[in-house]
Amino acid sequence: MSEKLKVGILGGTGMVGQRFISLLENHPWFEVTTIAASPRSAGKTYEDAVGDRWKMTTPMPEAVKKIVVMNVNEVEKVAAQVDFVFSAVDMTKEEIKKIEEEYAKTETPVVSNNSAHRWTPDVPMVVPEINPEHMKVIDFQKKRLGTTRGFVAVKPNCSIQSYAPVLTAWKEFEPTEVVATTYQAISGAGKTFKDWPEMVGNIIPYIGGEEEKSEKEPLRIWGKIEDGVIVPATSPVITCQCIRVPVLNGHTAAVFVKFNKKPTKEQLIEKLVNFKGLPQELELPSAPKQFIQYLEEDNRPQVSLDVDYEKGMGISVGRLREDTVYDWKFIGLSHNTVRGAAGGAVLCAELLKAQGYITKK
């Protein structure tokens, strides 16, 4: 066995689980050795369990095809095989909370793509370029769980990735009010056009729970650790509408911002293109070299041209211009299942390894 950390994927047969598996192929630090899913998939090889439901554009990695899928509910058994797990299980919120904590209590770190623990006060919800210091709250969480190395860490919702990093880059100009409308890809619902033919040529002006997440989660990311919990920031005020559009991958956001301090266009662009975080300093394997790119053309960013920027881990911004009601407006684009889901979680795990929270068992 290699020196790589042994990774389990909980919920490995679903769309995000598949994205984890494709992103982790040939990863320099991590190796997928265990896949767990619902009892109906357990006992089958991964190839048979997925069958014709492989949704990635790249082929299923050879290394995982013959892995025999385990029952995700057999927590002790799965945990005994791995150093840590990624969670992409499809269950109710309460069931997810319970099972992720059960894995953590076996001294197995859990890096989750699910929303269940995003508001658990001592669980860090991290975009590694923005709030890596929030991982310190894990020490308080371990005390609550009674663990020495087990914990849960989560990444935020996919919809905020196309504007929260931008607003972070502009922090010194003190954004006070933000209006965002997100145009969200169908893969965010775990679907392709084959699964969801009624989305072709259609727009649905509602995605359950999404607007609340889009308004509140950035504030938690910008919050501070106080008395062992994360206390969300109180500004800027964000209001959001979330729309499902007939695009496979890529969430686009149209955003209006009001600032306390009045920046110039040149200052705003300079802050975007020079914005770096700890992942860039540490040269983590999945970190984009350039986190945010600014595109000058009037018709960019576009999903078909820009969604895979920096292998889907970068963010594209364009159409920055003055507004008649707010101060400035822009368009942002991020890859919802790479940066917004599995890729963001992989980067969190790389950061946790670099910080010493994830080690070999």
UniProtKB/TrEMBL annotation:
Pfam families found in the cross-reference section: Semialdhyde_dh, Semialdhyde_dhC
Keywords: NADP, Oxidoreductase
Residues the record marks as active site: 158 (acyl-thioester intermediate), 251 (proton acceptor)
UniProt gene name: asd
Family affiliation: Belongs to the aspartate-semialdehyde dehydrogenase family.
Protein name in the entry: Aspartate-semialdehyde dehydrogenase
Source species: Eisenbergiella massiliensis
Ranges where the Semialdehyde dehydrogenase NAD-binding domain occurs: 6-138
InterPro entries: ASADH-related, Asp_semi-ald_DH_pep-lack, NAD(P)-bd_dom_sf, Semialdehyde_DH_NAD-bd, Semialdhyde_DH_dimer_dom
UniProt GO BP: methionine biosynthetic process; threonine biosynthetic process
Annotated EC: 1.2.1.11
GO molecular function per UniProt: aspartate-semialdehyde dehydrogenase activity; NAD binding; NADP binding; protein dimerization activity
UniProt keyword annotation of Cell membrane present: no
Flavoprotein recorded as keyword: no
SUPFAM superfamilies recorded: Glyceraldehyde-3-phosphate dehydrogenase-like, C-terminal domain, NAD(P)-binding Rossmann-fold domains
